[in-house]
């Protein structure tokens, strides 16, 4: 739980009373590898902070899932569109490694927003971060080739390359695993 406070204090100082209220609403949950944190068709009820682990966001397809995002330790994770609208999700979120989360429910977060000075700053920062990551990915898919996206991953997010299976990486950059293998052969 200390890593959450440290993360927030990089954004804004948190008084002990505000932290006490916020931390009293956090629930720690552990998930085994391959478990779903959010199932398509269900409504997201949590904004979570990853203590350890890696999760992927994907749309299940008959032939091959479409992976569109990953989240790592010390990052927020949520089916945020479903969380905000309180409507069912159109995708799954899966733990691809053993994962531990600190979670706050939708109802408790609304209470924190109303009852603390720092709640809105923290909420805004989390939502802005999630938005900016999504926009960056969308622009990349529209303006870069698959090879350029892979090379960018090598420099910007080496942990993706090291810790995630090639089939998930291929889906993430919008190509088949075979096409990714050809790109990797050309590069190395």
From TrEMBL:
Q: Which domain of life is it from?
A: Bacteria
One Pfam family hit:
cNMP_binding
InterPro entries, sorted = cNMP-bd_dom, cNMP-bd_dom_sf, RmlC-like_jellyroll
Q: What is this protein called?
A: CarD family transcriptional regulator
Residue span(s) of domain Cyclic nucleotide-binding: 31-112
Taxon lineage: Bacteria, Pseudomonadati, Bacteroidota, Chitinophagia, Chitinophagales
């Amino acid at each position: 739980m200390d890593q959450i406070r440290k993360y927030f204090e990089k954004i804004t100082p948190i008084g002990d009373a505000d932290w006490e209220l916020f931390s009293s609403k956090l629930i720690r949950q552990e998930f085994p590898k391959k478990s779903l944190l959010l199932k398509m068709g269900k409504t997201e009820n949590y904004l979570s902070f990853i203590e350890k682990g890696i999760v992927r966001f994907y749309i299940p397809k008959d032939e091959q899932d479409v992976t569109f995002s990953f989240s790592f330790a010390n990052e927020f994770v949520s089916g945020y569109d479903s969380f905000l609208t309180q409507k069912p999700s159109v995708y799954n979120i899966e733990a691809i490694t053993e994962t531990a989360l600190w979670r706050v429910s939708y109802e408790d977060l609304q209470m924190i927003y109303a009852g603390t000075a720092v709640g809105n700053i923290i909420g805004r920062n989390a939502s802005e971060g999630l938005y900016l990551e999504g926009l960056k990915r969308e622009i990349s898919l529209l303006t870069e080739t698959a090879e350029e996206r892979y090379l960018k991953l090598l420099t910007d997010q080496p942990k993706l390359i090291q810790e995630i299976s090639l089939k998930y990486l291929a889906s993430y950059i919008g190509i088949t695993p075979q096409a990714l293998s050809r790109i990797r052969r050309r590069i190395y």
